[in-house]
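One such shown below:
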Amino acid sequence: MTSPSAPSGRPGTYIRFDGWLRGLENAFNLVAAASILLLMMLAVVQIVGRNAFNWPVPGFIDITEQAMAVFAFMGIAYCQRVGGHIRMELFLGKLSGRAMWIAEMIGIIGIWIVVAALIYGSWFHFERSWSFGDSTIDIGLPTWPSKLVIPVALSLLLLRLTLQLYGYWRLVRDPSAEPIAVPVISDVESVAKHEIEEALGDDADEASGKEGTHR
């Protein structure tokens, strides 16, 4: 049974699933960014409190250790979606057409296997922490919430990798198809052009705002 396609010939189910996954990835990434902000604010309170009032934040190290899992893993699927991770574009940039899409698909298959193994291992560590009632040394925070974050975030990454695997398979079958929901290598000229267009757009918005103010 083939998936329904959009009127333009684009795979409709694939695009809808990508849209749903994007919303979830954005929410996870927002939580990761918020955890970094809150941790920075807590660090300021810790430094000021310790130096000025001799009153450090109780369990600051414990809180930091638990928060690390949040900001280190919850944005990983978002990073994979936008291609923000380190990629071997020096090699891939020399390929084109079906050869490039095959190389991309092989890379995704390798990552998929590694992530699946990591999900299994991290879930095992979560279960052990939950069963033993593991906690931090200083103020006794339970460690299972931070350990649960890892398999959940990696499961979201696995969904993204599965989606990209199908996306690259589409391109292997038909190299002339439109790349959808997969990172695309941009050359230096394209990146520079995009940055110039963004800068010009920001300048135009600022100019229109000033014009409106003068009126």
Observations:
- Residues 1-8 have pLDDT under 50 and may be disordered.
